[in-house]
Amino acid sequence: MERKDYLQNARASGGVLTLTPNIFPSKRLNINSQLQVVSVQIQLKSLITVCFIYLPPNEIIRQTDLDDLIKQLPVPFIILGDFNGHNTLWGSVDTNARGRQVEKLLDDHSLCLLNNSSFTHFHPATKTFHTLDLAICSPSLAPYWDFSVSDDLFNSDHFPIILTYSRNDFNFPKRPIRFIFDKADWHLFNSHCEFTQDMVRQPDVNKAVDSVTKCLLKAADMAIPKSSGNLPRLYKPWWNDNCKAAKKAQRRAWDKFRRYPTTANHIAFKHAKSFFRKIRRQS
């Protein structure tokens, strides 16, 4: 975990934090900047710099500070964060000063914008959707990463951004695949695991062992299921059927509001959200 806290008038405000899984080697980069940024280098198929940034909406951001940040990032890099800028370039209905500032940054440094037409922010007061969160990268990375946005707010006002590696040349870490003996069909196993005299009566003992092993594994593959090898999700002992039902109701209310953003549907969503929070706390 890497973080950069920010205090305004002795109160916590803004700040940036990133979590990287232990399965990927990573290290923090020391960035000399007044901006709210955290940057790490992650070893995926190759070494990639990932920078997380937050630009407060009412704060004056100097263009030179953004330029200095770019100069400190080892290429190739991806910049992710809440820029609080509007620009028709990424689907906004208008362009403001911050949006023009980010557009200049893209042009001056020949950077690529990964965003598609998906909204990334919901403004509860006006019940409107906007794109404030951007994914910017070096040109060499642009062909290999696809941008998408989760359709669930997860109790925030920002939708999580998802970047998906589009090529099939990277193997994600997995756990060793194991036989699940508790679910084995032993009758089927016995019917396919038949040793013959020819298997064991061989002048070379290694060939005999190899023949028996192949017979065992062939029968096991047919009769004993295997684990997927995927890394497990974190176990939540407090999660129960009430939580599941409340989450489903909140999701249903949210989907209805997104399709029909009326005041009544917004109120119904807020009620469902509040009830889901209550159920989680009671569990």
From TrEMBL:
Residues 48-162 form the Endonuclease/exonuclease/phosphatase domain. GO terms for molecular function: catalytic activity. Pfam families: Exo_endo_phos_2. SUPFAM superfamilies: DNase I-like. InterPro entries: Endo/exonu/phosph_ase_sf (IPR036691), Endo/exonuclease/phosphatase (IPR005135). PANTHER family: DOMAIN-CONTAINING PROTEIN, PUTATIVE-RELATED (PTHR33273), ENDONUCLEASE_EXONUCLEASE_PHOSPHATASE DOMAIN-CONTAINING PROTEIN (PTHR33273:SF4). This is Endonuclease/exonuclease/phosphatase domain-containing protein. It comes from Araneus ventricosus (Orbweaver spider).
